[in-house]
Amino acid sequence: MQFEPPDDLDVIDRVHDLGIDTVGIHVETFDPDVLARVAPAKARAGIDHYFAAWERAVERFGPGQVTTYVIVGMGEDPELIVEGCRRAIDLGVYPFVVPLRPVAGSLMSDWAPPDPPAVEAIVRRVAPYLQARGIGAGTAKAGCSRCNACSPMAAVERRLQIGPKPVAVTRG
Predict the structure, then answer these.
(1) Rounded to two decimals, what is the model's pTM?
(2) Three-state DSSP string of the chain
(3) Distance between the two ends of the chain, CA-based, in angstroms?
(4) 31: number of Cβ within 10 Å
């Protein structure tokens, strides 16, 4: 299940009590200037509100069962991205680092995707923190980190031998 951080953090408890086992609470970027430009409502909520929601969610769902999308390629400061990812990992959150993929007809359709080496450089700095916490693509029960179709995270994790190997997902 994916949702924005609720004003009332007890909502997270109610989501857990419904039987949901993995959640995504997606901040998109840890760079406050970029967040204000590309996702003003998220910026108004504040990055600290995301951290409070993640902390509560990890308490309920467990380490590695809470994810956040972190998009690279919107003009962010890579140091802020890495620092934010490390802080999230310290809570038990899996920061799912993905390159911006502009979609025709969207508000960002004329943006260029980031250079693959720039994305990989960030992932290579984030992945060892995941390894240290025992969190990886293979530890998630569901969600984006489990699928990994949009990110190089799992490939870098495999090279670093982080956690159990992801299980192939079959679609029927």
Answers:
(1) 0.88
(2) CECCCCCCCHHHHHHHHCCCCCEECCCECCCHHHHHHHCHHHHHHCHHHHHHHHHHHHHHHCCCCEEEEEEECCCCCHHHHHHHHHHHHHHCEEEEEEECCCCCCCCCCCCCCCCHHHHHHHHHHHHHHHHHHCCCHHHCCCCHHHHCCCCCHHHHHHHHCCCCCCCCCCCC
(3) 21
(4) 22
CB 28 within 8 A of CB 69: yes
Q: Which residues pair with 95 in a beta bridge?
A: 68
Tens of pLDDT, residue by residue over 114-146, are: 999 999 999 999 998 998 899 988 888 877 777
Tokens, residue 67: 């994810």
**pLDDT, tens digit, 9 for 90 and up, residues 8-64:** 999 999 999 999 999 999 999 999 999 999 999 999 999 999 999 999 999 999 999
Burial grade of 74 (CB within 10 A; 0-12, 13-18, 19 or more): middle
C-alpha 2 chain-centroid distance: 11
